[in-house]
Amino acid sequence: MSAKDHILVIRLSALGDVAISIPVILTLIKRHPELKISVLTRPFYAKLFKDIPQIKTIAANVEHHHKGFFGLKKLSNEIEQYDISAVADLHNVLRTKILKVFLFLKGIKIVSINKGRKDKKRLTRTKNKIFKPLKSTPERYAEVFKKLGYAVNLTEPVFLKPQTLDAKMLNELNFNKAKRHLGIAPFAAHEAKVYPADLMQECIKLLAGDKDINIYLFGGKKTEMSRLHNWALPYENVYCIAGRYDFEAELNLISQLDVMLSMDSGNGHLAAMYGIKVITIWGQTHPYAGFAPIGQKETEQIIPDRKLFPLLPTSVYGNKKTMGYENVMRSIKPEKIVETVKRNLD
Predict the structure, then answer these.
(1) Is the pTM for the entire model greater than 0.70?
(2) In this structure, how many other beta carbons lie within 10 angstroms of the beta carbon of residue 142?
(3) Residue 287 half-sphere exposure, CB side, CA atoms within 13 Å?
(4) Please, what's the b/e burial string for 170-188 (b: 16 or more CB within 10 A of its CB; e: otherwise)?
(5) Which of 39, 116, 261, 273 is 20 to 30 A removed from 231 (C-alpha atoms)?
């Protein structure tokens, strides 16, 4: 491919998967500054790219304007005006497959991600399980660009730069550099990936005892906002962020953290795209499936006791339940989490 190449990167969802792509794309740009990159994603996720001038985002409104077969055909016609020379499909679902047919017929080169579905099935099945680490999602993304002729070396990933907090936010959160700043994102899309509420509250209590640490609680849904507000109330150094600031302000705060403690969820990847150290707690999923935050070490991954629960992992995404495995996370003691967090804060 030539130096004038314009690559369209497709990743429509979900939030964490879009966030994972950013260090990979930034590393690609550093190695190949001559490339022109556009990213096709949902309008809300386009906000993740707001501080990257080298990347143009194209909004895919797949719920309305670009919905269905004819909506995707319309989207392909809109994409044509950008003079795209190649497509890197990092999503590879039915919707993007239809879109790629239209783009292929326009003479555009297409390369799609290999998600390793068979290997993931072998990893999570309960019989004849093959328990071994699989290729990570960032590596799978990088593989797509390599097939287009552009190698990406992820041993030295490039991250987004930290953003500044406005004066109002600094004051409201008593944010100062003399303190250490810990984010906690205690929820996930599926219950099988959520650390029990009573144990998480114990973690917060133990961590809040150190007045040199500011703790920020992140969440999204209204029920999560209410719970996090109540969890923060007893402590002067614990702040509920959920529902208090808009998404861009939350990203700015995340970029200033020292450590993020999260489930196997999007918030961990949002922190990782800024190069923030991320501690993850795993339930019925497992980092071997390839969804650990980019650059994370095994010592920063806290998993249940596989001697007690040898069938783990039982799910790739946490959307499947296995009888008798509902309480796997209770084998992880709050003290272990607190010790891991403090060690990384120090």
Answers:
(1) yes
(2) 22
(3) 21
(4) eeebebeeeebbbbbbbbb
(5) 273
